[in-house]
Design a protein that fits this description.
Elements lengths: L1 H14 L13 H14 L13 H16 L11 H15 L4 H8 L8 H14 L3 H16 L10 H5 L5 H22 L3 H8 L3 H10 L7 H21 L15
Helix pairs in contact: 1-2, 1-3, 2-4, 2-6, 5-6, 6-10, 7-11, 7-12, 9-10, 9-11, 9-12
Length: 259
Amino acid sequence: MSLADKLDTIVGLFAAGEKPTGSRDPYALRRAAQGVVKILVDLPGMGIPAAQKFDLAPVLQEAYAPHAKALSTSPDLWATLGLPDFLWERLAHLLERRGHKGNEIRVVAAVPEAWANPFDVSRRVDAIAKTRSAPEVQALAALFKRVKNITKNLDDDGASLSGLQAVLKEPAEIALAEELERRWDEIAGACVSGKFVDAIRALSQFSQPVDQFFTDVLVMAEEPQLRKARLALLLRLRSAVLRFFGDISELAAEDGKSG
């Protein structure tokens, strides 16, 4: 009841254009949103396992439906009101108060729709905090930063890894493609089942093949088809990591620096 009441209040006031601005929050919506994310993070530990998969997106759409009808707007308009960013901000604040570093939280912020499952986010951030100091995780974080820079402003076209391997030539690039194809189902399965520490440790095993790829391979090859295949391989790696883990390049900075 508390969760329903808070969400109804937040959605109704956002629909009315009364969202907080700066220090102004006359309806205490930040406090209400803080309560929402705290409830969803803590409920599974209180013996309510169903809360582990609670998805805020359809709940917010349902809460907005009567307002959409009254305003003669689309029920999907709730997503344009700033609610995802607002709730993410409150979730990040909660996790920071519980001792997590800012860059650990920013890693997970890159996971699509992360804001909609606060409990899932809290487990992912916990897993990152437990594994971030491992040398192979730090190495992969630095390498992923390089992958992002090379593929900046490029989109993954969904090309199959098996199709790419037919074009690739160098042993290091073929090995990376094979490693992605061999390991990814295992890593994805660990993420889906909530074994995020195991998933991150498995992901960190990519640090060696990715490092070897950058040592041996000229990504921007003169041959257009080869250059396209090499970029596609890196784009596939980027997409997979962002989808399941987030932006691990956030961990590349030294732990002693401010998160």
